[in-house]
Here is the input.
Amino acid sequence: MGKFKGQVVSYEELIDSTSELDEVIVHSGEIDFDEDDNVLLRNFEDGFDAIENLLELPQLMDAPNWLEQINGNNVSCKSWSLESALEAALVAACGQVYWVEQTVTVGYVSGDEISRKCKIATRLAEC
Here is the structure.
């Protein structure tokens, strides 16, 4: 599905990994160096340390081929998106979530904050 805590995770692993969190920071794409960062490119590449609740999603992903083959498929392949799968995973892990979009800290390089515009899913109900 994406990278969580620096590791590629499946749908099921994402549910397990986020079930205890109150908030998940979702970034579209991998966190790359930006000229506005207050660090050198070399330092970023060698030392970027992502925050614990950061999920990096691929920017583009089509509906998986197996989706068409599921009997009783309740999800249209045409309406499937990575965002809809993420929403379903977070609901399965934590119940309802509230979404906001804002610039937040996504990690650090030698103590310097690295910020990006992200979507933030905050738990509304206890798991």
The mean pLDDT is 79. The helical segments are 11-18, 41-47, 82-94. Residues 2-123 form one domain. The chain has one domain: 2-123.
